[in-house]
Give the backbone structure.
Amino acid sequence: MKKIWSLYHKYEEVINYLIVGVLTTIVSLGVKYLLLFTFLDASNAVELQIAVIISWVCAVAFAYVTNRIFVFKSKNKNYFKEISSFVSGRILTLLMEMAIMWFFVTLLKLNTDFWVVVFTMICQVLITVANYILSKLFVFKKN
């Protein structure tokens, strides 16, 4: 048990980021699938992007609070700058997700429920890595 705690403390930030990332992904996917499998249609390009944007807004709000408190333990009092940087980084990865989903689901017409799930999962992996790098280097950097 001591070895596990030792490893946790050694890699605490990354482990906490992964835990928060999984929870953020659940929020994002839950909202997206709820929208796409109820009243929005993934084969409609506009409705697909609406679902992506709404799920993104929910996930970013959740991610900012949890990353600030549990992952990077930020003490920055300049909330506006920190939130602006966080949202800017997330906008970049949102555009990345929108481009990937548009290319595969809309342009290549891989718009069945199966392919929407596959490309969403691929996006989530890419976005998680990109968001960690952006958060670590630009948003919650230690002064």
